[in-house]
Design goal:
The complex is a heterodimer of chains A (368) and B (353). By secondary structure, chain A is α+β, with helices and mostly antiparallel strands. Chain A is globular, with a radius of gyration of 26 Å. The two termini of chain A are 31 Å apart. In chain A, the strands form three sheets. Chain A has a four-stranded antiparallel β-sheet. Chain A has eleven helices and eight strands. By secondary structure, chain B is of the alpha/beta class. Chain B has two domains: 206 residues, D-Maltodextrin-Binding Protein, domain 2 (3-Layer(aba) Sandwich), CATH 3.40.190; 96 residues, Periplasmic binding protein-like II (D-Maltodextrin-Binding Protein, domain 2, 3-Layer(aba) Sandwich). Chain B is 42% helix and 18% strand. Chain B contains 14 helices and twelve strands. In chain B, helix 3 packs antiparallel against helix 13. The longest helix of chain B is centred in the N-terminal third of the chain and has 32 residues. The chains are: A alpha+beta (368), B alpha/beta (353). Chains A and B meet through helix 4 and helix 10 of A and helix 4, helix 6, strand 9 and helix 7 of B.
């Protein structure tokens, strides 16, 4: 009883100290702002922004508000982060399997690249990739060209953009059908067929039909730049490359540790049942390794999301650059802007870890 | 009875008036005897060090030379200010600030003054709670483009991509310019000028935009400066100058009159070389007041009377500073608006009297 009281006292003291420090900070903040005749006010979010965002996935022009700039740059951040999560996971898996393959060339390559990449600063790597990409790509008037509508040069990759009214509905419909079929798979009688044989062709067929119904706008060189079509800027390429490569080596080590954490008897049993080494890895070892690797993998995914802010150094218009630089400077609302940026990242990362934790719970061994 | 009250009233009025007068006279006398230099200057003296906020690296304003020494017109201003307040131009802690962080660094009290090619604007004065003390460089936003593009004015940049830095008003000016002229100009924003310039040299953009003074500096750092040109027209007004925190009127006066002293020195022909000599030989009352021979101008600011003399002896008058970094032997930027008012420029100094 006495020990419990003591524990409670400690808890209460700590909580009280934390609250006191927070109160002290907020008091200082309001006092300092008052001295300088400033106040916290979020009304600026509804003001016209007046600036341009060079790369965006949703509608934007300079008559939109500061608040909407947060949405546009937030979508850019999420887009880069999503690409990095998928690519870094795949590359990490590849590096881990190479490291464990026993083939001296593959082991050497994997080991060297892991050591080189994880022991140099990430920002330096991203800036390096950016200028490497810019140096490798040809100048604009000597663009690499495929067909009549795809161009690659130092300004980015230009591809034709679809327009029309029907194609987007076909794509959306196909996605919904594929999802439904995937979820209701077991209800169908032909479930002896593996899903992988049916679903991807279905998706491709839908997209191809949509492609034929759409009319395509081709990019063309006009004046200083290509006009029309979709442009994928080298900034996005360099950022995704930089973050993917950097994070993939950490993911590779996590996967390697997880695979090595599976008892050796498992692979021996798989082999004695007559499974090939590939089958034993993908059907027996990796599914069990997932349980070990999800928690540390979650941290890596959260790091990826946060690392997208390094895009500000190489002109990728993400939240930090658009909101915490341009909007902050133009509106002068440092406290409000930084609070919003932190809040947005906190929300994105809490949602991500909630999803990963749900996945982890689903995979956890039951009844142990 | 009536006379008695009248007398009483009159007496009371006299007494009050006399008391008020005594108070005012006493107040003035007190002010003349021991004028406090204000909390900021007192803190600097106590610390023995001026914390001067500067740019991270723009030739002409603030850039480190091969030996790591800071050079530039903003640096000279910091040194002159340190000499005037502390008597020693070396007692400075330079705090390089990025475009995005500069005002927060000033607001937080980490620096005493921000002399960092920063434009004086309405938002910075009001929303940020800063005092804008003086303009030490009249600039305008211009463009640095490749000569081979065949562009001769800013309006020709229709459809071009321009690299620049975030945290300034540069992209807003371009968007405003594009809106008013109907041109479409894309901007690509970098954290640092070095990266923006490197991307431009790699062909990622058609040009670079910044204040005219910085453009001349940046052009000098390019691999082949001769391939590039600064377009003649400017799309904005950029009065670059000195910011301090609001709330210390005394410090404001010291910084304001230091700027005036440096420009007045040029106006009256007082240079780094002849300042000491003019102290004894000059007959001009303005020069004598400037150099602290006559009057108590330094004391009125809470400084020594030879405050301006010390400042001028450190790096010369305003014209000497300009020539050192932007003159024909340096970045070769014509003085234009940065000349004195009587030579066709904008620097009109308030009289020292």
């Amino acid at each position: 009883m006495r020990i419990r009281n003591k524990a409670w006292a400690w808890q209460a003291t700590t909580a009280g100290a934390v609250v006191a420090v927070l109160l002290w900070f907020s008091h200082n903040l309001s006092a300092n702002l008052a001295i300088r005749g400033m106040q916290v006010d979020f009304a600026f979010l509804w003001q016209r922004s007046g600036f341009d965002i060079p790369f965006r996935l949703v509608a934007w022009d300079n008559s939109y508000t500061y608040g909407y700039a947060l949405v546009v740059s937030g979508v850019n951040t999420l887009f880069a982060a999503a690409l990095c999560v998928v690519l870094a996971s795949l590359l990490g898996l590849l590096l881990a399997l190479m490291r464990l393959s026993g083939n001296p060339l593959a082991v050497g390559f994997s080991r060297t690249s892991i050591e080189v990449v994880r022991n140099t600063p990430q920002l330096t790597q991203i800036v390096f990739f950016y200028f490497a990409v810019l140096q490798v790509l040809p100048p604009m008037r000597q663009s690499l060209q495929w067909g009549s509508g795809i161009f690659l040069n130092v300004r980015g990759l230009y591809i034709p953009s679809p327009s029309g009214v029907l194609w987007d509905w076909i794509v959306a419909g196909t996605c919904i059908v594929v999802l439904l079929v995937a979820v209701l798979w077991r209800r169908f009688s032909w479930h002896e067929l593996p899903r992988i044989v049916v679903l991807p062709p279905l998706l491709v067929a839908g997209v191809v039909i949509a492609g034929f119904t759409a009319s395509w706008e081709l990019p063309a060189l006009k004046g200083f730049n290509f006009v029309g079509g979709i442009r994928i800027p080298p900034e996005l390429l360099a950022l995704v490359l930089g973050i993917t490569i950097y994070t993939s080596v950490f993911i590779a080590e996590i996967i390697r540790a997880a695979i090595q954490g599976i008892h050796h008897g498992q692979s021996e049993a798989a082999r004695s049942l007559g499974l090939s080494s590939g089958q034993s890895m993908f059907l027996v070892i990796l599914p069990q390794a997932l349980r070990i690797l999800i928690p540390p993998l979650t941290s890596q995914y959260l790091n990826i999301i946060k690392s997208t802010t390094l895009g500000a150094a190489i002109a990728y218009p993400e939240i930090l650059q658009i909101f915490a630089r341009t909007v902050l400077n133009q509106s002068g609302r440092a406290v409000e802007v930084m609070t919003l940026v932190l809040g947005v990242f906190l929300a994105i990362n809490l949602i991500t870890s909630a999803i990963m934790n749900a996945w982890n719970r689903r995979l956890a061994l039951q009844g142990r | 009875m009536r006379r008695w009250t009248e007398m009483l009233c009159r007496g009371a009025t006299r007494l009050l008036a006399g008391g008020a007068a005594a108070l005012i006279v006493g107040g003035i006398a007190h002010a003349q005897l021991a004028p406090p230099p204000g909390p900021t200057a007192e803190a600097i003296k106590k610390r023995g060090m001026l914390n001067c906020g500067i740019d991270t690296g723009v030739p002409g304003f603030a850039a480190q030379d091969a030996s790591g020494k800071w050079k530039g017109i903003d640096i000279d201003y910091c040194r002159a200010l340190a000499a005037a307040v502390l008597g020693d131009p070396e007692k400075i802690k330079y705090v390089p600030t990025t475009a995005a962080a500069r005002f927060t660094v000033l607001q937080s009290g980490e620096i005493d003054v921000l002399i960092r090619d920063s434009t004086l604007t309405f938002t910075r004065s009001t929303v940020l709670g800063l005092d804008q003390v003086a303009v030490n460089f009249y600039a305008g936003q211009g463009f640095l483009v490749k000569k081979s593009l065949g562009v001769s004015k800013a309006a020709d940049l229709q459809g071009a991509t321009i690299c620049t830095v975030t945290g300034a008003t540069l992209e807003l000016n371009i968007a405003d310019f594009a809106r008013s002229t109907g041109a479409k100009i894309d901007t690509l924003l970098f954290d640092k000028a070095e990266e923006a310039i490197a991307a431009m040299e790699a062909g990622r953009c058609d040009g670079y935009t910044d204040d005219s003074g910085s453009l001349a500096g940046m052009r000098s750092t390019l691999k082949v400066p001769g391939d590039w040109m600064v377009l003649p027209d400017l799309i904005s007004k950029e009065p670059l100058g000195i910011h301090i925190r609001s709330g210390d009127a005394r410090w404001n006066k010291i910084v304001f009159w230091l700027d005036t002293a440096l420009k007045s020195a040029e106006e009256f022909g007082v240079t780094q070389a002849n300042a000491d000599q003019l102290k004894t030989t000059s007959k001009d009352p303005f020069v004598l007041r400037l150099l602290g021979v006559e009057g108590d101008f330094g004391k009125a600011l809470g400084l020594d009377n030879d405050w301006a003399l010390k400042a001028i002896k450190v790096s010369g008058n305003y014209g000497e500073m300009y020539d050192r970094y932007f003159g024909p032997k340096a970045l070769d930027l014509p003085r234009g608006l940065n000349n004195l008012y009587n030579k066709g420029g904008m620097h009109y100094t308030l009289p020292l009297r």
